[in-house]
Amino acid sequence: MKMLKxxxxxxxxxxxxxxxxxxxxxAMGGIDTLDAIxxxxxxxxxxxxxxxxxxxxxxxxxxSVQSRxxxxxxxxxxxxxxxxxxxxxxxxxxxxxxxxxxxx
Length: 104
Fold this sequence. Notes:
Layout: H1 2-22, H2 30-39, E1 44-47, H3 50-59, H4 62-70, H5 73-81, E2 89-95, E3 98-103
């Protein structure tokens, strides 16, 4: 019975850690994400609600993110093609190959 409890606790911890890394709002990679904006050629643009926008502003300098997207013609075109303007951008997460842009 004790072994079963150990396995259950371990499985719960592993699932919790996996879920935290899967979160699209991981605030730990902000600087890497800003660097990725300059070299990314594609991104997904998602709509953020007010609560998500506030959280993203905690980890993202909105003016800097918008400026970097304006300077990257691929991302600027992607944002417009997905129905948003660069002024609506409130944050970004991910890496060069898996970039997600959040807009209001």
